[in-house]
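User: I've been trying to design a sequence by hand for this structure and keep getting stuck. Would you show me what you'd pick, starting by listing the structure so we're on the same page?

Assistant: Good idea, let's start from the same input. This is the structure you sent:
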């Protein structure tokens, strides 16, 4: 099976990276309302769900890609390729974080961004990806429990000061990805297993909502309630994309080309945002008026889309 040809996954991956780009632009613009920005600590906005969209998109193809490469290339080459990929993602994130620190955007002093969190999650998932789904369900749930206990009793202050939960927060991002790979096995299964995917998605969301009465929902802390809620929402949203693609034969070419080279486009968006930020004139970026914000968003999305379509026409796929 060529996982890149599953239309709904292509669409969802493109949607995830597009919304990540928009969220990063809006984060520093004062005119954007707070409900379209990340919650400082406890709470949940729609923007807090975007990184989990991308994590879930990775989970949808992680197992299939690993098994395909294992069959084709053997054990050593497969593990080496996946290890190198996620280590490179951490490195790319480090470059971006260093740039943010250099221009004074990283106020916490801790260089840990979303790509580092994704990279560490990918490396941890690599350890368990060959295990049957039931064991990954158990391991993912176990990490959520242990993480929350340690967070509450020992590392809350450090985690709150760290973007995306810092190195410790990577454990719960990994739990999200591990559980995502187990849910993906249901989606890629046959018969009753495939039919169980929507119910599993609802169950995960319901478990997160129930846990929220005991554990505050917080992306900043990467709390276990946040992980379950965002994972359930991601799965249900993907299910909507899958239904639209199947029921109406929705091609969504715009989203698909965004999803082919997601990391390259993600890196590119920082370069474009830098054009607005580096001059150091707040009226150009941070305190820009509405008309200028809309213009800059058009330039940002239009420029990246042009590159995405060009890469697609040239059949270039930049993968790590």
């Amino acid at each position: 099976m060529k996982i890149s040809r599953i239309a709904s996954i292509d669409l969802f991956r493109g949607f995830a990276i597009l919304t990540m780009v928009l969220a990063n632009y809006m984060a520093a613009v004062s005119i954007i309302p707070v409900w379209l920005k990340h919650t400082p600590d406890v709470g949940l906005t729609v923007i807090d769900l975007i990184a989990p969209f991308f994590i879930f998109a990775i989970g949808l193809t992680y197992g299939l890609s690993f098994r395909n490469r294992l069959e084709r290339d053997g054990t050593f080459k497969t593990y080496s390729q996946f290890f190198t990929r996620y280590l490179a993602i951490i490195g790319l994130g480090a470059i971006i974080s260093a740039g943010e620190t250099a221009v004074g955007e990283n106020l916490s002093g801790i260089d840990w961004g979303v790509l580092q969190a994704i990279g560490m999650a990918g490396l941890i998932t690599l350890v368990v990806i060959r295990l049957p789904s039931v064991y990954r369900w158990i391991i993912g749930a176990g990490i959520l429990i242990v993480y929350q206990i340690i967070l509450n009793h020992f590392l809350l202050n450090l985690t709150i000061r760290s973007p995306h939960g810092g190195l410790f927060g990577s454990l719960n991002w990994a739990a999200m990805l591990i559980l995502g790979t187990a849910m993906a096995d249901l989606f890629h299964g046959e018969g009753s297993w495939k039919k169980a995917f929507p119910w599993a998605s609802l169950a995960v969301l319901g478990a997160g909502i129930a846990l929220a009465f005991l554990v505050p929902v917080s992306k900043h802390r990467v709390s276990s309630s946040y992980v379950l809620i965002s994972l359930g929402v991601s799965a249900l949203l993907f299910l909507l994309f899958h239904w639209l693609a199947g029921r109406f034969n929705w091609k969504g070419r715009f989203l698909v080309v965004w999803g082919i080279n997601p990391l390259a486009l993600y890196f590119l968006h920082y370069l474009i945002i830098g054009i607005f930020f580096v001059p150091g004139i707040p009226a150009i970026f941070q305190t820009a008026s509405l008309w200028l914000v809309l213009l800059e968003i058009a330039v940002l999305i239009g420029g990246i889309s042009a590159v995405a379509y060009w890469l697609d026409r040239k059949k270039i796929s930049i993968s790590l």
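That's my pick for every position. To get oriented when you compare it with your attempt: Residues 133-161 form the longest helix (29 residues). DSSP finds eleven helices and no strands in the chain.
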